[in-house]
Amino acid sequence: MPSRFVVILSILSLLPASLYSDTIVAKGSGNWHDPLIWDPEFRPMTGTNGSDSVLIGTDENGVARIVTWVGGTAGGVGNVTYTNGASADFGVDNGNTITVDGGILAHTKGTNWVRIGNWGEGTLDIKNGKVFFPVGEVQIGTHGTAANGIVRIGDGTGAAGSAVMNLWATADGNWSGQTTALNLGKQQNNTFYGSAGFITIESDGLLEGGAHTTTPNGSAWNYNQSVTRIGYYPSLVESVLLIKAGGRFNAHGTVEMGSSGILNGMTSKGLLHLDGEGALMTMDFGEFNIGRDGVGRMIIENSAQFIKSTNALDATSGVIPKGFGNNLGRAASGVGTLTIRTNGKFIRDTGGNVGDLYIGASGQGTIYVETGGELINRSTNWDWIGVAAGSVGKVYVSSGGLYSVVTTAQIVVGRDAANATLGAATGLIEINGGSMVSNGDVHIGQDGSGTLRLISGRAEMLKLSMGRGAGTGLVEVMSGEMLIKGNSYIGGDTGDYAANTSLGTATFNQSGGIVTATNAISIGLGTNHTGTVNITGGEFYHKVSDVSVGEKGTGYLYIGKDAKFYEQATASDAYLFVGRLNGSQGTMIVDGYLEKQNASVRVGHGNDAAGSENNTTGRGTLGGSGTINSQGGVYVGSYGTLTGGTMTSVGALTIQGNLNLVTNTGAASQSTLFVNFDRSSPLGADRIIVTGEIYVDGARIDGTWGGGETGLESRYWIVLSDTGLGLSDFFTNMVWDSDHYLASDYWNMGADGFVNIGGMDFAMFYQADFDTGALTGGNDLMLSAMGAVPEPGISSLAFLGFTCLFMRRRRTRR
User: Fold this and answer.
1) Residue 3 is inside which H or E element, if any?
2) Could you give the CA distance from residue 484 to residue 463 in angstroms, rounded to a whole number?
């Protein structure tokens, strides 16, 4: 060949490829810098100051062309740095595209960077074949708003896994022995920001993430992780990693969406989207963050699955590393959202090192489990919803959605208390047509603020504890079904919280639906804790063990007129306590229906643990305008009070069973029947209706006078004995004599004695008959208000009457 033609060809080989063809094609295998493997024969410049696009395919026999990039090669592919100097990094930029269709592109192991979209847009299109990037960092979108990087793995036409981008291995398929960062939406030196990165994994695509390395640290080990960041730095555009039906991403290190916080009014934004049947992301190591410091989103839909497995034995250290956390809103500025719908699944698989799930770790985290979606925990690691002070965590389970804990792992809603600068952690689980099924305990308001709201659907758990520490717990049941298979502690807890004396509060509100509590119920369990249960509608069932309203703390149980409470425990010692242990305070108001099988209702009547009655100072109050059906009767002990309505309002309470008003000899307090008199009430005064026997042993009658009819014609029917047996004895504060000007008239009418209640003198008729209105011949207690009290009045004779009572033979009509 004449020398002049050689010179011409040499010159032509240095010209841009665009002068030859739209795409430079690899015609052989070898080093990228070898011009002889390309057609035309010169080194392609795909970077910032190049204009070449390349295709790496197969030979005529279908054998893959293998093009290797040696890390650190001088001159690079035309990339430039932020100072516009030369860069040895590999990449594609300036609107160029690298297409792998049957071939292999392999970067040698090293700490170099790969840049897809450096200053402008760059595309890596892996239709079929493999790309190996065992490098320090792969940047998808690097400098500024124009520098968007695009990676497509697969074209949707090949077999599963026929298109691969591998960050874990070198071209020989062996582990590279180093970590690799995959960053979508990078920036340079806080100067050039706003870029975004996009990866799409098609049905035939596979993304193999980088692995971790292990290095010794004294007697411990450091696990250095590879990381995938979707939306690394602030940008107006959301970076996206999309896994389509059949596509797969195997992550072996940390994965996060929305990595960085606010810069120049922008925050990082990242979306991980799994869409379609067979779309799968697995994760076997590392931390998982949705909204680390920025805004992160994850969507799993249309039968796609995310599965995180437990850490395996580490070959270098010889130990199993502790599970890394899974966070939504990891930092205070982080905002994370996970949406699971249309048969999508988010699964933490079996084992103890999968890592806890923190929904609102320090920032804001929200999970939506929608129609057909499933949030599944098969591990023994816990779920935390609203974790650190200032955080907000929420889980919404709508119609057809399932939140499932297969093991005994626990759920904590509202973990930490407020501190000097931040409010208490706030957590919420709301079920509206979906289901929450947990085989572990659920804690609502540990030291923070927690809410479990069942609008409709089903909620099932092992133990329920509320307000266990300094927290505030709220449960709302509007309809649907709630099953508590273990104990129910409303205000306090046992175990590590048994001795906790913080001012925790808990409220359980049921306005409809069905609640079944299988085991012991304690309302106001902990010292200084307050528990409140308001059942205004629906049905509440209790199956086994006892119920305590005020065990060591303060408890309140209200059963509204449209509500039913079925206490079905049949054991002889399965009592319903109202005020149980020393220092406790319990109140139970029944305006609806309460049914108690076998054992009794004990009101200020002590604790059964010592096998005796009236053995504690726990105070109890029982009232209401409904019905109590108690096979074992109702016992109002030395520290107990019985009233109709409430302590400030008038009502008529029916007790189907025996009533016992019992005071221990020498007790510092007395069993009390408390009566409100109120002229505005149709009843005029509280009323107790008893179908069984009425035992009065050392009890007193007390109350308030709120006005009403007085004089000989006044009638206040206080206790009605439906069996006709009447009261077994007199109240201790009744006196025999009165200097009231009507006293002799009342004696003539058959009065048994007199009493002063709330400043008003009353004549007492123990043998009155409500049905006929007669003052004698019956077994009902009627009081008649005598009117203005003359001096010295009954109050001055009370002590004398109390003494006389014990000198008089007990009255009995049995």
Assistant:
1) helix 3-13
2) 6
Q: Which are the contacts of 601, defined by CB distance < 8 A and separation ≥ 6?
A: 575, 576, 578, 622, 628, 630, 632, 633, 634, 635
DSSP string, 476-494: EE-SSEEEE-S-EEESB-S
Q: Which residue carries 């299109």 as its tokens?
A: 125
- The per-residue DSSP string of 305-352 comes to EEEEPPPPPPTTTSS-PPPPPEEES-STT-EEEEEE-TT-EEEE-SSS
Q: Are 676 and 647 in contact (CB under 8 A)?
A: yes
| pTM over the 0.90 mark | yes
Side chain identity at residue 757, one-letter code: I
Inter-CA distances, 707 with 83, 714, 740, 781, Å: 92, 12, 19, 19
Of 509, 451, 458, 464, whose CA–CA distance to 480 is shortest? 458
Length of the chain: 814
Contact 280, 248 (CB under 8 A): yes
Cis preceding linkage at 321, omega within 30:
no
Q: Does residue 748 register a pLDDT over 70?
A: yes
- pLDDT tier at 265, thresholds 50, 70, 90: confident
Nearest to 427 by CA among 403, 409, 452, 410: 452
- What is the rounded CA–CA span in Å between residue 323 and residue 616? 47
3-state DSSP assignment of residue 497: helix
Instruction: List CB contacts of 93: < 8 A, sequence separation 6 or more.
Output: 46, 47, 48, 50, 78, 79, 115, 117, 118, 119, 120, 121, 122, 147
Q: Determine the 3-state secondary structure of 806 from DSSP.
A: helix
What phi and psi, each to the nearest 5 degrees, are found at residue 803? -70, -45
Amino acid of residue 515: V
Percent helix / strand / coil, the chain, rounded to 5? 5, 45, 50
At 513 the three-state DSSP class reads: coil
pLDDT tens digit sequence for 55-107 = 999 999 999 999 999 887 776 787 766 555 557 789 899 999 999 999 999 99
